[in-house]
Amino acid sequence: MAMTQVVIVGSGPTGAALALLLVKRGIAVTLVEAAKDAYRVFRGEGLMPSGLDAIAQMGLSTMLEGVPHRQIDAWEFIVGDRQLFRVDEPMGSNR
């Protein structure tokens, strides 16, 4: 077994992505997670263009095709029951 070169604490999206990228480059990684199972309660997830670029770099873009999702058409900023403002998408993005 190769000697660990990098220890990553936390196997959430960032830790797991970093581990994958390092292993693909031949770096020995130990990924440490306190949770005993992979169950996570997601409280809203979004991918910005840079996140989509990172997923493509990891070679995982095709996996996204089967994930239920909806495209955002606007951002609404609401405090209490009052909408402060709304910005339609895209906000200068090419995606």
Automatic annotation (TrEMBL):
Gene3D superfamilies: FAD/NAD(P)-binding domain. Keywords: Oxidoreductase. InterPro entries: FAD-bd, FAD/NAD-bd_sf, PheA/TfdB_FAD_monoxygenase. Pfam families: FAD_binding_3. It comes from the Bacteria. Residues 4-64 form the FAD-binding domain. One of its GO terms (molecular function) is oxidoreductase activity. This is FAD dependent oxidoreductase.
